[in-house]
Amino acid sequence: MQIKEYNEIITECRKFLKNEITPHVLDMDRTPDFEWALSVWEKSHALDIPSLLLPEDTGGVGYPEVCGALVLDAIASECAGMASVYAHHFTASALMTAIPSEQHPLLLTPAKRADGKPVIGTVVFPTKSNEEKLYLKKRDGRLLLSGNVALAGNMRYAGQYFVFAEEDGTNQSITCVRIDKESQGVRVGNEAGLPGLKINPFMSMDFDDVEINPSDVLGGRGSAGELLKKATDAFDGFVAAMAMGTARAAFQKADAYARERYQFGNIIIQHQEIQRMLGSMLMKLKTGTSAVLGLYGGVRLNLPYASPDPTLAKAYCTGAALDIILDAIQIHGGYGYMHEYGVEKLMRDVKVLQLMMESTPRCHIRAIASTLKG
Amino acid sequence: MNHFHLQYGLFAKTPDLVETLPGLGKLKEVYPSYIEGAETAQKKARQFTRDELFPRVLEIDSKCSKDPRYLDWELWRKANNEKLTISPIPEKMGGLGWSALANAVLVEELSSACLASASNITFNTFGLLGAMVECRTGIVLKIIKEMVEAQKQAKPLFWSWAITEPGAGTDMEDPEAMETMRPSTSAKKVPGGYIINGTKCFITNGSLAHFVIATIPMDPETPKASMATFLVPASAKGFQVGRVERKCGQKASQTAELFFNDVFVPEANLWEPPGRGLRHTREILSITRGYIGLAAMGLARGALERCIQFAAEQKVHQHRLIDEEWVQIAVADMLKDIRTVRSACYDFALAMDTYHVWSLFEKKPIRASLALLPEKLLLGESLQQIARKGIVSDLGTWLKHKAVPDDIIEKFVKIGSAVKVAGTDLAMRVSSRVLDIVGLEGMSHRYGIEKYFRDAKITQIYEGTNQANRIDIYNNEIGSLLDTAIRSEKI
Asked: According to the model, what pLDDT value does residue A71 have?
């Protein structure tokens, strides 16, 4: 068990955050500086965070996803936007662990920088709920990717994209391919203008007959269903972890504020209603955190009714986190609504996390609808 | 995407006030001019909102994100030109003569597009509402004259209420809490007037105000017993606007810090004597809380209407987003909630007309004066001079307190608080839920839906946090009964 090592990583990570991220969070929310984020990323190599989840045979640390989730929780407690940069990258790393190791060198040679560090990655998921789609076709013996997505994360940073696309005309079979940012035909569009995660703006993306290198097809043609599930599960788990990290920050701020704010003749934490609110927030924080950890540890008991479900955990945790944050703002009163107190930002960030991949009602529907197929 | 506007809500055939609130039908039968007045207001308010406000909302929001002091003066002038800034002033004196009901319609429509811009336009009347508390005839006539003249000349005339202090939010609004508060401000009696010191914060329009109505204690050790209300001109020496806050939402409405540094105000600017300051605040709250509930309900309506519009246009595979059953159920559920809260909001507005300050317009002396006196005289200097004389000035106060006694004020704090909590909780719930429907893409700034989510949160906080509002509801409805029971048992 690597619990001790995880704790060390988190401790180091927190020190790093306090120095590098915390002082800049509000400025970066207001006027995002993408160079700053890249400089943080560079410095985080010293802690091996970018290579944390990459397989050892690729030069990574080879830690399991739970460690990634813990790190993301910690980063999100300071800045969910910055955490989401790592979350997208970690999801790409998680994909790497799911493909046969013999493919690692083929994939990773181009995906490494000259200094051996990994290029920032991101996963482009197929959009399930609108018209846009990505598809692969063969022309003159070349494999080409075309189509567009309305929203993709890490577009300001990623040097490589892991894209899930349909085989043209099949409407079913999915293939996963790796693409370099510089590939011809890749076009990154406009920022979506979301209210949160400002340091990591979502952007639209166009692929115009982008040629795919045969060694950059992950797994096999048309058989990336498992990989997609792996990536989706990893990402949902990471989003849930980030939501709880953000909510923890909100809870701690509210708790601290309630112990110093004087109103109605006393510090407000002496009031039953404030205690009830904080208690309810704590309940959601603890059950949400358990839900995240349950994704990685709960499976050991092998209880069928306790099987992990990252999508539902993400839906639950982001909802719980939003509730916690709304109450945290409420406890802060007017101050909670002001940018400089850093509480309202958490609300904007978490609402974006909540809608990532699919919104909660869609997650609920899919959880049941998917059991009806076949 | 093929762009169209669903003929619904803001874009529906107007007026639809009675159609959407059929309970008003009976009232229209017995009192047609009253409801027709509100229908005219709806037409005007909706047209302005559709044509002028709605198209600018997102640009204003973006500009204010960069510069919290930005204000779209062109929009404000257009609203002013339509007299929306002086809507409650009697027609004969130059206003629109809108009832509380008609003003509710205005607030609802404007807020459905942008609550912050709605407050820029409608908060202009704060001065009048403040003066109506004691209703000294001279002061009221003077303020009306100033407002009407400013409107005619297209000059802004802003009034702010400075209640909140850095260390006292709820404490400034609650009788029990005020006893133990730690005020930062204080006033000192000097020959000919008062010297004011201290800081107020989160003051809406504080940075734009020409006059600030400030609640300030004479003795910080006994805040409740010594709380007074002053009218402070922004031009007064020692008055200074501090920071204009950067906020989560409601960016078009400026929120400022105000500093009072040995500000002298003359005796005549003491609007409420020491000990009456809280009473003044309570009366203001008895009006504004209900209207905040109304505005928040308008916000919820606007958020849902934008969501419906998006869902009707957005394609999901082979169908529209709105064709999905779960979306239809969610939309219906929100329609149900909005309808329920909206009824309560309009019940509040009708009650305002019946029992609160608007009822004054129905009182014989005021009706007779408005009917008989020519317009020139009403706003003329000679009437004002007479009105400033003790007995005539006191007559207004007497009439007002007779028409709107203290128990009515507390009753309206209660029902206003209930409407406020219901409306603002609705706004937060709906503005979050519509985002679940439209998803991440629909959350993009350009669709204008996420703005409602950012705007909504403050409504649960200002005008007393919803927790403080709930305390008022309990104390007024149940707590006071128990106190009486205990008292009578003792006897």
From this structure: 97
Look at B443 and A360 and tell me if their CB atoms are within 8 Å.
no
Give residue A131's pLDDT.
62
Q: What angle do CA B334, B337, B340 make, to 5 degrees?
A: 150
How confident is the model over A206-231, as a mean pLDDT?
Answer: 90
- Interface TM-score (ipTM) > 0.85: yes
**One-letter amino acid identity for A328?**
A
**What pLDDT was estimated at residue B1?**
46
Phi, psi of B188 (to 5 degrees): -125, 135
Lowest mean per-residue pLDDT among A112-121, A128-137, A284-293, A355-364:
A128-137
Strand partners, B227: B217
User: What does B338-395 look like in DSSP terms, one character per residue?
Assistant: HHHHHHHHHHHHHHHHHHSGGGGGGSHHHHHHHHHS-HHHHTSHHHHHHHHSHHHHHH
Rg of the Cα trace of chain B?
A: 23
Compute the nearest-CA separation of B485 from chain A (Å): 25
Rounded distance between C-alpha atoms, residue B413 and residue A292, angstroms: 45
Residue type, B485: A
Mean pLDDT of B74-81: 97
> Distance between CA A256 and CA A258 in Å, rounded?
5
Cβ count near B280 (within 10 Å): 21
Measured CB to CB, residues of chain A less than 8 Å from chain B are: 30, 129-131, 150-151, 192-195, 202, 262-266, 273, 322, 326, 329-330, 333-334, 336-340, 344-345, 347-348, 351-352, 354-356, 358-362, 365
Looking at CA atoms only, how far is residue B255 from chain A in angstroms? Answer: 10
Amino acid at A314: K
